[in-house]
Amino acid sequence: MSPLDMAWLTTTLLLAVPILLAASGELVSQRSGVMNVGLEGMMLFGAFFGFLIVEQTNSSWFGLLVGIVAGTSLAMVMALLSVTLRADQIVVGVGINLLAAGVTIFLNRQMYLDAGQVTVARMDKVPVPVLADLPVIGRVFFDQSPVVYLCYGIVPLIAWVLYRRKWGLAVRGSGELPEAVETAGINVNRVRWSAVLLAGGLSGLGGAFLSVVQVGLFIEGMTSGRGFLALAAVVFGKWHPRGMILACLLFGGADALQLRLQGAETIPSVVWLAAVAVAVVFLVRHVRRNGVTKSGWVLAGAVPVIAAPLVFDLALSLPAQLWLALPYILSLAALGGLVGRARVPSALAEPFDRKNL
Questions:
Q1: Secondary structure of residue 88 in the 3-state scheme
Q2: At what angle do helices 60-79 and 89-112 cross, to 10 degrees?
Q3: CA nearest neighbour of 249 among 16, 21, 24
């Protein structure tokens, strides 16, 4: 059985959704000039409090709503310290991650230590009539939970607002030239506050999706770095919604693949073939956009190396730990410049003080 089958596609979509939700909010936050490193903590808050409410009320929708509120509450702390008080955004984000980890561990042990592993009923799937019966894509895309369908609409909506509406223009201006935006009569810090709160709400929803929809339980540290993967997806996508979606699907696909291959004795040839195809696509895309650069030569050198086991029919295997690290290795490659040079928003991570105008 091929590891890249329909079950892999379905798992890819499910694993990409929480990353995509958090990354969508982070895209807006970074375009406004705020580097929100606290996504991981906001997702963790959403996961815990969403699960807690479902366990108390048996309402998945109420749990998701509380997950959004929990993520937004941490985002308010982030906005207060980094936007209003102009503290270092990276330090504040790291502090929020540590705070969320500590609070959720404390509360989980206080409430559930003696109860064992508490579970709740996962949100039911709602197949879309007609579309769910389509061959190949029907079961993958249209036989999912309502949150997945919601995700289909959130990302295009954010892209439309960001590039077609006045508020989106103010967000992009606040991240590029905040002095000009303030001079035009728009409060830059207010725009940044709203962008950070949006990032917190979507991150909280992504965390609640993990505990309420995907697994139906809460485990300490269950976000497992997905907030950082969302950060990497924004960079990987070069601060554009289309690239960000591709990055999230790539991370989700890598995560789904490692789940399928942890018990495999050797790496299937179809995996090598897919890796070569991905490397070639990135190489062509990189050369078309940036010309022949050092990064392009690195990619060109990687293609024959990846193809060697396929050409020479080599039976190779990897330890389960390396498969587990596959999504994070991809994120390191993204942050290390594999995707080439990207133009960072000019005022990213720089606090703004209107008194300096």
A1: coil
A2: 140
A3: 16
Average pLDDT, the chain: 87
Q: Which two tokens stand for residue 273?
A: 């073939």
Report angle CA 19, 331, 324 to the nearest 5 degrees.
Answer: 80
CA distance 211 to 231: 21
Structure tokens at 19: 């990353």
Cα separation values, 205 from 70, 73, 143, 150, 163, Å = 9, 12, 20, 11, 24
Within 10 Å of residue 216's Cβ, how many Cβ atoms?
17
DSSP count for the chain of H helices, then E strands: 15, 2
- CB-based burial of residue 117 (10 Å sphere; 0-12 exposed, 13-18 middle, 19+ buried)? exposed
24 neighbors 245 (Cβ within 8 angstroms): no
Q: Which residue has tokens 């490397």?
A: 279
The sign one gets for the Cα dihedral 212, 216, 218, 222 is: negative
| Digit-coded pLDDT (tens) for 72-105 | 999 999 999 999 999 999 999 999 999 999 999 9
The model carries a pTM of: 0.87
Long-range (24+ apart) CB contacts under 8 A made by 1-10 are 2/268, 2/270, 3/257, 3/260, 3/261, 3/264, 3/268, 3/270, 3/271, 4/257, 4/270, 4/271, 4/274, 6/136, 6/139, 6/140, 8/253, 8/256, 8/257, 8/260, 9/140, 10/139, 10/140
